[in-house]
Amino acid sequence: MKHLFTAFLIFFSVSCFAQVKTISFNSEKIKEKRDLYVSLPASYEKNKAKHYPLLLVLDGDYLMNPFTGALNYGSYWDELPEVIIVGISQNKNDQRTIDCGVDTVTGVPYGKSVDFFDFISLELIPMIQKEYRTTNFKIIAGHDTTASFLNFFLYQDKPLFNAYISLSPELPVEMEDKLPELAAEAKLPVFYYLSAADGDEKKMQQRIKKLDAGMKAIQNPDLNYKFEYFNQASHYSLVLNSIPSALYQIFSAIQPISVQEYNTKIVTLKEGYVEYLKKKYDIIENSFGIKNPIRINDFKAIEAAILENKDYNELDALAILADKSYPKSMLGDYELAIMFEKKGDNPRAVRYYMSGFNKEEIADLTKDMMFAKAEELKKTFAKKPKIKGKVGQDTSTDVQTDVPAADPAPTDTPAAEEPKQ
Fold first, then answer.
1. Is there a common fold for 2-254 and 259-417?
2. Domain ranges of the chain
3. Nearest to residue 135, comparing CAs of 290, 283, 251?
4. Compositional bias (Low complexity) at which positions (predicted)?
5. In angstroms, what CA-CA distances link 171 with 58, 93, 147, 152, 179?
6. Do residues 55 and 80 make contact, with C-beta atoms less than 8 angstroms apart?
7. What does pTM read for this prediction?
8. How far apart are CA 204 and CA 342, in angstroms?
9. What span, in angstroms and rounded, lies between the C-alpha atoms of 367 and 380?
10. Which parts of 119-236 fold into alpha helices (H)?
11. For 178, left (φ over 0), alpha (ψ -120 to 50), or beta?
12. Dist. CA 195–CA 208, nearest whole Å
């Protein structure tokens, strides 16, 4: 039932979000015109400065829609990034067999398949990078015959792709032994997803499982590897089961801070909560070429960890990061106000609540909330009653109830003005 629901979501999301156009590419390498399916992200035309990872889909005639649907659905919920997807048509005159043919003795491409390999490496990828705003992060995906062929890009000294999605590959001779050797020697980060199903042919399953054993034995920190075996799945339904899992594996670092990440990696820290957040977004930019603003919910997760561990001085660093990420918003002032309030310095807490009141609202932070917090704290430092008369004399007291005004709002960046306490 879970897999059927996944399939429904994928195809529902395709119909709702995806817009795929077909273009014709005239290749000198394979001596023919080949149809390409191109899906651009929803924000592509709106944000002319933004660049996107690239996913190249072999067997684009039937794999394009599942991949496009899964990515559009994931990006809608901000769990997967927007990606440029290009699929290659291979459904005419047994093109996929010709494109991906291998020598039965050596197990490597020969003849037309060498031309197809060069078509991808020397023509198609350069054209995509010229015509579309791509980052340097590239993924390739395929199914059975094409799933095996994509592995040959790992045979290069400097692999063209950063991530590989191999769905029930029909492995050529010795590939289950050769591929782990190459992955073990990888000098740059490589993502590799492999899957099989009990509906696959038995000999194919055995060889895939041998490949899996070899990959799992690798002690290479630059290899990010995942294998899944699907029971009660056919050779074809495996595709719908595998695609979301593969994408979430590859882009796990990009996802918002989850409850699990918070509980296992963040709140357990003794210090360095803000540094953890900085590193998370540095990885997103350096590994995937994606420049995303820090999510407000990620700010709130780090704030919660700081408060739970009572490391209030870290809120100063969080305020600096907030002012850098959202300079016109009240977020930075709010973090400083919380810091001073928790440290018992209510006058300065009021000062920053009122400073934030004059800035833009963001997420659940509103002007009404900032003003109410300031007014509430003002009551805690009202002037004490003045006692008239001499000691021992029966006198009445006049209680002064007027509240001193808060300090004037700071004109410089709050976090820069106030030293860490």
1. no
2. 2-254, 259-417
3. 290
4. 404-421
5. 16, 22, 8, 11, 10
6. no
7. 0.84
8. 62
9. 21
10. 125-131, 145-149, 175-184, 202-216
11. alpha
12. 8
Which residues are CB-neighbours of 262 under 8 A, at least 6 positions away?
301, 304, 305
Strands 397-398 and 386-387 come out as antiparallel
Can you list the positions of beta strands (E) in 243-396? 386-387
Which residues is 140 bridged to in the sheet? 56, 164
Query: Are the beta carbons of 163 and 139 closer than 8 angstroms?
Result: yes
Quick check: helix, strand or coil at residue 294? coil
Whole-angstrom distance, CA of residue 310 vs CA of residue 110: 64
Residue 182, phi then psi, degrees to nearest 5: -70, -40
At 70 the pLDDT is 97
At the top level of CATH, the class of 259-417 is mainly alpha
Closest CA to 141 of 120, 121, 167: 167
Rounded Cα–Cα distance for residues 181 and 274 (Å): 39
Say which residue the tokens 């054209």 belong to.
127
CATH of domain 2-254: 3.40.50.1820
29-88 pLDDT, tens digit per residue, is 999 999 999 999 999 999 999 999 999 999 999 999 999 999 999 999 999 999 999 999
Predicted local confidence at residue 388, as pLDDT: 55
- Please report, for residues 63, 65, 396, the alpha-carbon distance to residue 239 in angstroms, rounded to integers and kept in the order given: 8, 11, 85
- In which residue are the tokens 């969080």 written? 318
| Contact (Cβ atoms closer than 8 angstroms) between residue 90 and residue 99 | yes
